[in-house]
């Protein structure tokens, strides 16, 4: 690596590429409204840092609460330049989310809050209602005196110094603050760079939220690491009009861009033939698909759908990672074609990997998530015996290496449990327990599901994402990526529960019996299990994490507590009375 901290990285970019366009924000995903050059960003970071230093803030934690835009970036680097630990949080939108922000602020023992004038003015009500947040020292960075940069003093930080606390999304339990160092971030960027062949002429386009690990590291830190340019838009701009993402790739000749699986599906469903005719995606060499289970059919259909626009299947780079490993654990290399592995579904249900034979029925296609390019070691371990699995066996994914974070903030017990796992009979080396299930074949990692979410009925394993896909495809009235499958105990045995949102346009004329019947039949045929309870809920009410993943455990708890926003209460009581 050329540098040991992100402070050094930005200073070098400012020195050697001062007029290089670093970040550009696209209003509504289309109009350039703000740009940061490396020299300008470095001076802004020094000014914000000097302000923080005037409060003797080194080593303290600062919440970063910004709407989509470039102000977050200057504030983030301002924290690093002050030796302050950055804590990105979800922008406040209503009382429900304030509890999460308050919980993060309390856990992080934050003393500062950084935002812009508009957010602070509009936040007076919830600051009044949340005195613990109001007592933070709030600084607005959009009106900072740029001349403060001249009084900045470079802090004493090194690769092991904490850069940020990345709070986990909450899909698997109470959010925890992952302690991410400068070294973790730089090594992860090295891994991304070696696999995806960035250079200073690369162009990245992103709509991913910067408070989330994938948006922060690939959308903000990786461009700095390589000295290339990034064009950004808000997640809402993409969700309202998905063509904006691909149009930006087309206009700016982007070489690298990525998103979760659902985004590619959304593009196929929402982008019209007329809109496709104006797209040129031939420059798009690396299309990351990560942050949620990667589906083979989505990759293949997207590639086919956008082939006339110049997109090629070989551009897809499925990947796997998590905040506890900074971001990337493994990913397909840019020059490699994604690997599709067809396996016997019955064998998979008992944690065995058996390649399917030609014309075999009951087959599932899994997508390879590549490998690491640095010192990351990936093991597949039996979560019960803590022994390494055989090659044809599914087990828990364990990880070690330079990108594994230091642990959870103020949580030594959980840190020891998750970050300091050891194999049975060998306590010399520590591993990160990811909680995810998978296997390795020919050096390639395949991810099959989440250990805590797995549904075990009559001794067979069922992955909830597979059941959820079956459900959403069973009737046109059901919303995609808005369902949850989980198990509850009834009379001593595990039973399947399905909770599924309905499209808003179908709410008034919905035939509930028809939809429930379709779901029940599809699940029985495809998975050979009976759905004990099927609950249809209103649009946009299923619990999700801040990064948009289905929060299955939260949904399960709401089901047990009778707090789901069901279409008709009498239906809910009828379906759940037996529980």
Description:
The protein is of the alpha/beta class and 579 residues long. Helices cover 33% and strands 26% of the residues. The strands form seven sheets. It has an eight-stranded mixed beta sheet, with helices on both faces. Strands 17, 18, 19, 20 and 21 form a five-stranded antiparallel beta sheet that branches. The chain is globular and about 70 Å long. It starts with 5 loop residues before the first helix and ends with a helix. Mean pLDDT is 90; it is low at 570-579.
The percent range for strand residues is 25-35%
Q: What is the CA-atom radius of gyration, in angstroms? A: 24 Å
Overall geometry comes to globular
Oligomer: single chain
Distance between the termini: 58 Å
Low-confidence stretches: 570-579
Number of helices: 20
Helix content: 25-40%
Broad structural category: alpha/beta
Q: Can you give the mean pLDDT?
A: 90
Spatial arrangement of strands, main beta sheet:
2-1-10-9-11-12-13-14
* Main sheet characteristics: 8 strands, mixed
Short précis:
The chain has 579 residues and is an alpha/beta fold. The protein is 33% helix and 26% strand. The chain has an eight-stranded mixed beta sheet with strand order 2-1-10-9-11-12-13-14, with helices on both faces.
């Amino acid at each position: 690596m050329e540098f040991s901290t992100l402070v050094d990285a930005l200073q070098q970019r400012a020195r050697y590429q001062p007029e290089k366009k670093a970040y550009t924000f696209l209003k509504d995903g289309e109009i350039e409204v703000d740009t940061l050059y490396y020299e300008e960003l470095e001076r802004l970071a020094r000014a914000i840092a000097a302000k923080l230093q005037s409060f003797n803030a080194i080593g303290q934690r600062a919440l970063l609460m910004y709407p989509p835009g470039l102000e977050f970036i200057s504030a983030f680097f301002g924290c690093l330049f002050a030796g302050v630990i950055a804590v990105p949080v979800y922008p406040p939108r209503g009382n429900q989310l304030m509890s999460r922000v308050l919980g993060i602020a309390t856990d992080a023992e934050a003393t500062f809050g950084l935002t812009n004038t508009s957010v602070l003015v509009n936040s007076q009500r919830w600051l009044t209602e949340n005195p613990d947040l109001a007592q933070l020292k709030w600084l607005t960075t959009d009106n900072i005196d740029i001349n403060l940069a001249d009084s900045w003093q470079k802090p004493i930080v090194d690769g092991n110094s904490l850069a940020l606390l990345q709070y986990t999304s909450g899909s698997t339990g109470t959010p925890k603050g992952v302690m991410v160092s400068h070294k973790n971030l730089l090594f992860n960027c090295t891994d991304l760079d070696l696999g995806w062949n960035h250079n200073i002429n690369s162009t990245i386009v992103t709509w991913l939220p910067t408070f989330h690990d994938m948006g922060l590291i690939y959308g903000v830190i990786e461009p700095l690491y390589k000295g290339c340019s990034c064009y950004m838009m808000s997640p809402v701009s993409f969700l309202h009009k998905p063509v904006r993402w691909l149009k930006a790739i087309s206009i700016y000749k982007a070489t690298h861009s990525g998103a979760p699986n659902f985004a590619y599906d959304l593009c196929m469903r929402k982008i019209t033939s007329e809109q496709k005719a104006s797209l040129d995606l031939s420059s798009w060499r690396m299309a990351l698909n990560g942050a949620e289970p990667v589906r083979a059919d989505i990759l293949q259909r997207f590639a086919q759908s956008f082939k006339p626009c110049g997109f090629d299947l070989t551009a897809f780079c499925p990947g796997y990672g998590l905040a506890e490993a900074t971001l990337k654990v493994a990913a397909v290399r840019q020059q490699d074609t994604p690997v599709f592995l067809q396996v016997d579904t019955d064998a998979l249900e008992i944690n065995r990997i058996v390649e399917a034979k030609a014309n075999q029925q009951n087959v599932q296609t899994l997508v390879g998530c590549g490998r690491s390019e640095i010192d990351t070691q990936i093991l597949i371990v039996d979560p019960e015996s803590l022994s390494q699995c055989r090659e044809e066996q599914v087990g828990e994914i364990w990880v070690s290496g330079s990108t594994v974070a230091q642990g959870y903030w103020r949580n030594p017990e959980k840190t020891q449990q998750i970050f300091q796992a050891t194999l049975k009979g060998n306590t010399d080396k520590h591993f990160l327990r990811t909680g995810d299930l998978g296997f390795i074949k020919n050096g390639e990692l395949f991810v099959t599901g989440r250990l805590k979410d797995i549904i075990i009925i009559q001794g067979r394993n069922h992955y909830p994402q597979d059941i959820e896909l079956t459900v959403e495809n069973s009737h046109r009235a059901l919303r995609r990526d808005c369902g949850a499958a989980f198990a509850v105990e009834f009379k001593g045995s595990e039973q399947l529960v399905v909770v599924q949102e309905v499209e808003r346009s179908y709410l008034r004329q919905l035939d509930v019996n028809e939809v429930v019947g379709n779901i029940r039949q599809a699940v029985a045929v495809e998975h050979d299990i009976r759905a004990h309870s099927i609950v249809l809920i209103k649009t946009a009410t299923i619990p999700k994490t801040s990064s948009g993943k289905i929060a299955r455990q939260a949904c399960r708890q709401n089901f047990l507590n009778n707090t789901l926003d069901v279409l008709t209460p009498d239906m809910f009581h009828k379906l759940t009375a037996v529980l």
